[in-house]
Structure formats: C-alpha cells, structure tokens
Design brief:
Helix content: 25-40%
CATH superfamily of the largest domain: Beta-grasp domain
Order of helices and strands: EEHEEEHHHH
Strand content: 15-25%
Shape: globular
Number of strands: 5
Mean pLDDT: 96
Number of domains: 2
Largest sheet: 5 strands, mixed
Distance between the termini: 53 Å
C-alpha cells in the first residue's frame, strides 16, 4: 500500500511525513515523529489520553487518520510549554499534585487549555462537563478540577 505525503504544522513548526492510509494521527505522532506525550489509553476515543488540537478543535488523535491532518495545524502536549517555562496549567497540576501515573495527564492538560481558550472563566460544572471525555483511574478528579479553576482565576486577575 502506498504511503501518503502529509504537510502540516505541529506545535508551530512545519512538518512533513509519510504515513499509511489507515495509520492514526496518534500513531504518526508517536511512531513517525517521536512526539510521545500523547498516550494511547483505549484506542476507541473513550479515555481522552490522546487528546490534541487540530485546527483549534479538541480531538482524540486515536480517532483521526494521519492523512486527515494534511494542511492542518496540530497542537500536542509537547507544544504547551514555552521552552523551559511551563504553561500555567502544567505548573498548577504539579503544585496541586493533580497527576499520579501520568497516562491521562497530557490529555487533561490539552483539554483544559482548550476550555480556557474558549471560556476563560468557567464554573466548576463547566470544567467537569468539558473534561468529562478524559478518564483518570488514579486521582479522583478533584485536584484536576481545582487546578483548572485556580488557573482560570489567576488568568482573570492577571
């Protein structure tokens, strides 16, 4: 089967790659491009561990084919920090111990950032609803929700 040539922008950088027609974006990110931050938790779009942004839309990269991102913009967890300076959400997750094993953390961070871009002042209910597509077996969610609300509050004050 012939590989497809894809030209895209990932985390602000122009990227070209070849992929099989049935290869998922998650597999391309991890196996072809070495961007291993997004994790495969379920391979069915149920857990959110592989969440990325494609053209400013939150998606599960296990449900998107690599060929579908041709001429698109993709943002992954690797692009969230600014060099060595963590994004406020990343910093707050560390401060509040809102992570444990780390499998779900990249997906939660990408989804939380997408929420705060769309709604910089969410209620707790809105945060819980927005992050409902992300599953965690370790933390119990409260520290994650608190971290997102704290960052929203800090951003509002800034």
């Amino acid at each position: 089967m012939a590989k497809h040539h894809v030209t895209t922008t990932i985390n602000g950088d122009p990227v070209e790659f070849l992929c099989e027609p049935e290869q998922t974006l998650l597999d391309v990110l991890r196996d072809e491009l070495g961007l291993t931050g997004s994790k495969e938790g379920c391979a069915s779009g149920d857990c959110g561990a592989c969440s990325v942004m494609v053209d400013d839309r939150l998606v599960c990269s296990c449900l998107v084919l690599g060929v579908e991102v041709d001429e698109s913009t993709v943002e992954t967890i690797e692009g969230m920090a600014d060099g060595d300076k963590l994004h406020p959400l990343q910093q707050k997750f560390l401060e509040e111990a809102a992570l444990q094993c780390g499998i779900c953390t990249p997906g939660f961070l990408i989804a939380a950032r997408a929420l705060l871009v769309k709604n910089p002042d969410p209620t707790e209910t809105e945060v819980r609803y927005w992050l409902a597509g992300n599953l965690c077996r370790c933390t119990g969610y409260d520290k994650i929700i608190r971290s997102v609300l704290d960052v929203a509050s800090e951003m509002k004050r800034a």
